[in-house]
Amino acid sequence: MKILIVDDHPLVRDAMSRIVVELAPAVDVLQAADCVQGLAFARDAPDVDLVLLDLNLPGVQGFEALERFRREHPALPVVVVSMHHDGDTVREVIRRGAMGFIPKVCTKEIILGALRLVLSGAVYVPSQAMAEDAEATGTQSPGRAAVALTRLGDLGLTPRQAEVLALMMRGRNNKEICRELGLAERTVKLHVTAVLNVLRVSSRTQAVLAATRLGLNAENLAGGAGGR
Questions:
Q1: pLDDT reported for residue 224
Q2: 190 vs 183: CA distance, rounded Å
Q3: Where do the structural domains in the chain lie, given as residue ranges?
Q4: Average pLDDT for consecutive 10-residue bins of the chain (228 residues)?
Q5: FRET pair for 114, CA 20 to 30 Å: which of 17, 50, 68, 180?
Q6: Radius of gyration of the chain (CA)
Q7: Burial, 149: exposed, middle or buried (Cβ in 10 Å; 0-12, 13-18, 19+)?
Q8: What is the structure's pLDDT at 152?
Q9: For domain 2-124, which CATH number applies: 1.10.10.10, 3.40.50.300, 3.40.640.10, 3.40.50.2300?
Q10: In whole angstroms, what is the distance from residue 42 CA to residue 198 CA?
Q11: How far apart are CA 92 and CA 104, in angstroms?
């Protein structure tokens, strides 16, 4: 596996390198200090599996850097890693084609889980960013989560489906959900499909966004499931 880290801070690159090597037995890490150097690495190493891209880069930066990677290497998955993780930024990054968004404040465990999810072909969106954005814009009152929790049954979610949705909001992929809940992969797929149908969405990312708008999060979903 080969991963390209594009960040202008050497300490950040080194820290991320120490984390991503835990993704597989053999991980080759490439480091670039800016977008131009990162694009050159991607051209010279067509076997790169994943790009971790900072938004604050010298020269070409922000959404422009992401768009250049998507334009020049459309088949290469890009995950944005940034200190700025407000809801608007997260949504815009996903809209422009990133396969995920990881706040730099995340723990190693969350980062690894998010990257494994992306490498499995899914999209990772930090649920906390959506929740913070909803609270900041006044779309979620302090009592909203409790109200939503009491209405899980009204939504049509079974306790098990609520547990599956909680793990989806934590960035777990199907195999990880299987291990945590002790279920067969086919069963987990059925639960995920049911969750998407209940929330009237077509992807895991949309499910996370929809659940967040309802005032749900991984904690109250898991608690509500355990209480029924």
A1: 56
A2: 11
A3: 2-124, 133-226
A4: 94 94 92 94 91 90 87 89 83 84 88 85 68 49 38 67 88 91 91 85 80 72 56
A5: 68
A6: 18
A7: buried
A8: 55
A9: 3.40.50.2300
A10: 40
A11: 17
